[in-house]
Design brief:
The structure holds 2 protein chains of 2 kinds. By secondary structure, chain A is an alpha/beta fold. Chain A has 2 domains: 88 residues, Translation factors (Elongation Factor Tu (Ef-tu), domain 3, Beta Barrel), CATH 2.40.30.10; 111 residues, Rossmann fold. Chain A contains 9 helices and 16 strands. In chain A, the strands form 3 sheets. Chain A has a 7-stranded antiparallel sheet with strand order 6-1-2-5-4-3-7. Chain A has a 7-stranded mixed sheet with strand order 11-10-9-8-12-13-16, sandwiched between helices. Chain A has a two-stranded antiparallel ribbon with strand order 14-15. Chain B is globular, with a radius of gyration of 23 Å. About 7% of the residues of chain B have low confidence.
């Protein structure tokens, strides 16, 4: 069992868990992920590692509530335990000194890009971060990301905080005005990564994305997470999760992410109804 | 009782669930012998002098010995004889291809049906599991066992070399076994029985490897695996789940941290695909994914279990091995109306066990022989709707000795399907070779190891099972693990 040491709500539906997993913490590197199973009947879901503390022996993950498993995960608190916690999986992000790197993150992926930005900066890069949210209420870790960046641009879709619009606009302007940007790291929802990659492609700036397909084992065994990169089938769990965003077949990835939409809806409905009973609320 | 002839040339048949019933449930198909059936079958054994069945068994079980014990009604003795050589009899009794091993060479096979050794092995294992005071299989620990089989539970009677140089009694040697499938469980059990301190690392959240993620419940109930793993643990093996060696620790780190030897039993877990157009459409699974979801994650019980699986109407399984049969029969149980096995050679070349082919056919699986996919066809939502295939014909034998399938030109035709399961085989996961210094691998990704001893070219590292041979059988992996354990033991005693 893997005990939850600490829980924090970053936004109403984005949560942070720090989990006791010394063996994983000893080896974790920026860009890797863990597979988590809440209980014996649970799914195995991948979560990208947001931080680690080798001395404490803990791993920090940040997740957003989307389906049943993440909603169920959000009901856990410090002191609770996870049934399984496997990692660190996948290849770490390539960290090298290229000069200036733009780190672009959407939504809860801010947490995931943090250790990457930190490692890149420690390697001597100048870091320009762009973080995008839907609205002001969802903004978190602005100071934390600023602390590992030389410049930071915040956007919200509705303009309720920072600059109005999507992350792709400041990204384009940045590439137009700053020729020192030699690499872009873009992490967030698949559509955001797709359009960030489209934005950078005309500038020929290498763009690394961290893909998030459906997985089962996370160790190369099942092939559920296969994606096409440069016309070749690759397994995200062992060949990635980082890939060259200009070579990813985004539409295939988006299609494959939708395989279990019906089942996910069904199981979420059942779960939601059960929760109504648990919390004592009545159905309208 | 029928009138007894000197030797009955027919074996006692084993009850099975009726095909029309079992096609809709995941309960075990074969029901096993009753005590009466087992005795009746055991009586057929003539206890011949040559005992060809023993060398026919990859783990050298004293087959005539345990059959004699059944005949004598001494079940504890039958269990003792069995477990002396095989820590996993309930598993082997169910999934070993006895028809090409011990039973094929049975003296009776010359005259009639060979002794049903596999069924008797299964009976002995099941008897022990059901025996009221059997602490062995419940992991009751050492000493908590009152049957004469009690000493099975203790490593000492097997510790033939006790007292010799490097005796583990003084300072136990530490061995890391990587992978808890058939090879790893066997190596761990053997080494523990020899008195060594064994840590067994498993990447998944459940022990058993292919026994739990691959072989379906209806062929090998997971409770059997769980109990036989408990037995291995009761020998003193320290099982560590959720531990991906190569990630959490490398083999070199294990050796540096004080393990005296490492055994790699990591299997062949990487699925092969056809590499033909459309293979990444929704609804196309590797057999590994389909079976892992169904068996390991129990998605046949969705939504009670959280992992989903698609329930499709027309399913094509590509391949002709046991994994293809398992996939097809799972798809049927998940509610498919039509399930095809698409195989590029003919019936004669099917690599699956005959028994499994028969079971599949009884259940209504349709075999499309001499058929090979050319490409997959999808709709505009990205889901597979069909498979364009070639008709094949057989040419001259290839390097495998089987006649090579050749495409008939202009023979393309389309099969309408809404799910495809690719069961073309697997290769070893490159994770360990790629993170271990000085381990030699072949072009197929298998680890190079001595056939007799399992010794790799790397100091203090042994390997056995599918990681060395490529995908093969449970029992051959167990045989290799036993030989490696003996060699590791010899090495450790020399330290």
């Amino acid at each position: 069992m893997y005990r939850i040491l600490h829980r924090e709500d970053l936004t109403p539906n984005t949560h942070l868990l720090r989990i006791d997993a010394p063996a994983v913490a000893r080896k974790a590197q920026a860009g890797q992920f863990v597979i988590v199973m809440i209980d014996e009947v649970g799914e195995r879901i991948p979560l990208t590692i947001a931080d680690w503390d080798r001395a404490e022996g803990s791993i920090t993950v940040v997740f957003m509530e989307v389906g049943k498993t993440t909603q169920k995960l959000a009901t856990l608190h410090a002191g609770d335990s996870l049934h399984a916690f496997i990692g660190p999986l996948g290849k770490p992000t390539e960290i090298e000194n290229v000069g200036t790197v733009a780190c672009v993150a959407g939504g809860f992926a801010i947490a995931v890009i943090m250790p990457i930005a930190r490692a890149l900066r420690e390697a001597g890069n100048r870091i320009i971060s762009i973080m995008g949210f839907r609205n002001k209420d969802l903004v978190f870790w602005e100071d934390e990301l600023m602390a590992v960046s030389d410049e930071l641009i915040v956007t919200t879709d509705d303009g309720s905080y920072g600059r109005k619009g999507l992350v792709t606009e400041p990204l384009r302007e940045l590439l137009e005005t700053n020729k020192d940007v030699k690499r872009v790291i873009a992490i967030g929802p698949t559509v955001m990564m797709k359009f960030a990659s489209r934005t950078t492609e005309p500038f020929g700036v290498k763009t690394i994305v961290s893909l998030n397909p459906i997985m089962v084992d996370g160790t190369g065994m099942c092939g559920c997470c296969r994606v096409e990169v440069g016309g070749k089938t690759r397994f995200t769990c062992v060949d990635g999760p980082d890939f060259d965003g200009h070579l990813v077949d985004w539409d295939l990835l988006i299609t494959r992410q939708s395989i279990y939409l019906d089942e996910e809806k069904r199981t979420l409905d059942i779960w939601s109804k059960q929760q109504v009973g648990v919390t004592g609320c009545s159905i309208i | 009782m029928t009138e007894k002839i000197k030797i009955n040339l027919n074996r006692v048949s084993m009850p099975k669930q009726e095909p029309e019933v079992r096609a809709h449930n995941f309960n075990e198909v074969a029901q096993g012998y009753t005590l009466e059936m087992a005795m009746e079958e055991a009586i057929r054994c003539i206890q011949c002098k040559k005992r060809p069945c023993v060398p026919g068994c990859p783990v050298d079980i004293d087959i005539p010995g345990f059959i004699q014990a059944i005949k004598d009604g001494d079940m504890p003795e039958a269990v003792r004889i069995m477990k002396d050589k095989n820590a996993l009899p309930g598993i082997c009794g169910r999934v070993c291809p006895q028809e090409t091993q011990c039973e094929e060479v049975c003296t009776l096979a010359k005259k009639g049906a060979p002794i049903a050794i596999g069924r008797l092995e299964r009976f002995v294992a099941d008897w022990e599991r059901k025996a009221p005071d059997s602490a062995v299989s419940r992991g009751g620990g050492r000493g908590g066992f009152s049957l004469p089989t009690g000493r099975i539970n203790s490593p000492l009677p097997f510790n033939k070399s006790a007292g010799k140089k490097g005796s583990p009694e003084g300072s136990p040697r530490r061995v890391a076994v990587v992978g808890s499938g058939p090879a790893g469980l066997t190596a761990a059990a053997e080494l523990a029985k020899m008195g060594h301190q064994v840590t067994l690392f498993e990447a998944l959240h459940v022990p058993g490897g292919v026994l739990v993620y691959g072989i379906p419940e209806f062929r090998l109930p997971k409770e059997i695996v769980r109990e036989e793993v408990e037995y291995v643990k009761s020998l003193g093996v320290d099982l560590r789940l959720n531990s991906v060696i190569g990630k959490i620790e490398t083999v070199d780190e294990l050796l540096a941290e004080g393990y005296d030897a490492v055994f790699l039993g990591t299997g062949a877990g990487l699925p092969m695909f056809l590499n033909c157009p459309g293979e990444n459409l929704n609804g196309i699974y590797s057999a590994n994914e389909f079976l892992t979801r169904t068996n390991l994650m129990k998605s046949y019980l969705f939504p009670e279990y959280d992992t989903p699986i698609k329930r499709s109407k027309r399913v094509a399984v590509i391949g002709g091995g046991n994994v293809a049969m398992d996939s097809a029969r799972c798809a049927l149980r998940l509610g498919a109306e039509e399930v095809y096995i698409v195989y590029r050679r003919s019936r004669k070349e099917l690599p699956a066990r005959l028994e499994e082919v028969e079971n599949a056919e009884e259940e209504g699986i349709v075999f499309k022989f001499l058929t090979n996919p050319k490409r997959f066809i999808g709709n505009d939502q990205g889901w597979v709707t069909g498979m364009e295939c070639y008709e094949m014909e057989l040419g001259e034998p290839d390097e495998s000795g089987r006649r090579r399938p050749i495409i008939k030109t202009g023979s393309e035709f389309i099969i309408d399907v809404d799910m495809v399961i690719v069961a073309l085989g697997t290769t070893p996961n490159p994770l360990i070779p790629s993170t271990t210094d000085g381990l030699e691998t072949t072009r197929r990704g298998t680890v190079v190891a001595d056939e007799e001893t399992g010794k790799t070219v790397k100091d203090r590292v042994w390997a056995g099972g599918d990681v060395v041979t490529g995908a093969a059988t449970v029992i051959s992996a167990m045989g290799a693990a036993k030989r490696a354990a003996a060699d590791i033991d010899a090495y450790l005693r020399g330290l």
